[in-house]
Amino acid sequence: MNSAIASTSLEVTTVKLLIDGQFVESQSTEWRDIINPATQQVIGRVPFATDDEVKAAVAAAQRAFATWKHTSIGTRMRIMLKFQELIRLHMERIAHTLTAEQGKTLPDAQGDIFRGLEVVEHACSIGTLQLGEFAENVASGVDTYTLRQPIGVCAGITPFNFPAMIPLWMFPMAIVCGNTFVLKPSEQDPLSAMELVELALEAGVPAGVLNVVHGGKQVVDALCTHPDIKAISFVGSTQVGTHVYNLGSQHGKRVQSMMGAKNHAVVLPDANREQTINALVGAGFGAAGQRCMATSVVVFVGESRDWLPELVEKAKTLKVNAGHEPGTDVGPVISAAAKARIVGLIESGIKEGATLLLDGRGVRVPGYEQGNFVGPTIFSSVKTDMSIYQQEIFGPVIVVLEAATLDDAIALVNRNPMGNGVGLFTQSGAAARKFQSEIDVGQVGINIPIPVPVPFFSFTGSRGSKLGDLGPYGKQVVQFYTQTKTVTARWFDDAPGTGVNTTIALR
């Protein structure tokens, strides 16, 4: 089998498509460079698949579904067991690839892969996750039971910020439920996803069960409108996610769309001061702020406002450098365009009257002068009508607001249209219980800044951060990737019948 990527003499890799078990060269005339964000070096080229190539990938998945859906749960489970073993063996190699194409630090790249690996491990529990229900004698001699059956060909569209974790949220759970899958990784950093796909085939995923196409809007639209695709999973921006949800839904597909965020951390004066400051800095500036669960807004309640200077001083200690350099805390953002957008929003904050306490615009990294670096940035005196509050910056920027009471802080958070994640820092159980009950956000952390649940639970963003009622991984995604069939059965013995019954009631 050919590799998913082919290196040239200049070490520039050409990314391939995966169609029906074979890695194939695209015939596309449209290609995009994959650029190392720290150096601007072109490290690969990715094709924007043609319409015929997308159709071929979906057709391969449709053919494979005819047999894969009948494959035993035990067989599917054992493939996932082998897959998780291979990911562990190759994690360091994939992490280096991820850092080169995405920019995040090596430890964070390993964390990216590990959080995806946890979903693969959870997929190994499919024997219990896909159980139906049974009720005996619901009427005289009648039993009713449910079956959870695969729905068919599914598709996944993944973002640049977690090029390993998000694909692993999607295709392992889809195929272990008996579906087949077409993956479209981010065109900005598809290399690590392709390495994971290679391992999935090595683990025993049959030809056609997993396919990969690359591209932009044209490929996304082709997946959203193809009649053989039954469900679409999306993680990315609000603009694209809304488009995917609307287009896919209009064409009769199930769609789960996890989108933008503006995550708040509410700090009460009784919180552990040092631990809270460390948590805010790590959650706000880790991964250069390019996380949909990053803490981008800090709300100091009452006297905790006095902690602001410590927040700034702690942020100043972070080391900005290329992701592969030892000791790096903040790597580059994904692209020059992303940097320009972040810098533009910082400048808008200044113009609109916020106080810039820490400015990351002018950071210089020796040896990486061309890198897309933005240092930790902190604003205070922020108002809710400012662009830096209303927009998801998706960079290493924290905006600070103040509230007089916990009630005021809760009201402030609930007025924001996004509902991905929120945190409360306190040592009061009563305050925590009030907060988790009254806050209108899908994922709540108590003294935890990034409350992404482990895979036994489901990712549960809400409101403007999510379209569709079922989230990725956990029990909810098994519901998403299966359809429930209800069977009502009566078995007759040799006793004489009771005659014709024209009523709806069962006897």
From TrEMBL:
The keyword Protease does not apply. PROSITE patterns: ALDEHYDE_DEHYDR_CYS. Its EC number is 1.2.1.27. Gene3D superfamilies: Aldehyde Dehydrogenase, Chain A, domain 1 (3.40.605.10), Aldehyde Dehydrogenase, Chain A, domain 2 (3.40.309.10). Pfam families: Aldedh. The keyword Oxidoreductase applies. Residues 23-487 form the Aldehyde dehydrogenase domain. Keywords: NAD, Oxidoreductase. Signal peptide: none annotated. It comes from the Bacteria. Belongs to the aldehyde dehydrogenase family. PANTHER family: MALONATE-SEMIALDEHYDE DEHYDROGENASE (PTHR43866), METHYLMALONATE-SEMIALDEHYDE DEHYDROGENASE [ACYLATING], MITOCHONDRIAL (PTHR43866:SF3). This is methylmalonate-semialdehyde dehydrogenase (CoA acylating). It comes from Mycetohabitans rhizoxinica. The lineage of its organism: Bacteria, Pseudomonadati, Pseudomonadota, Betaproteobacteria, Burkholderiales.
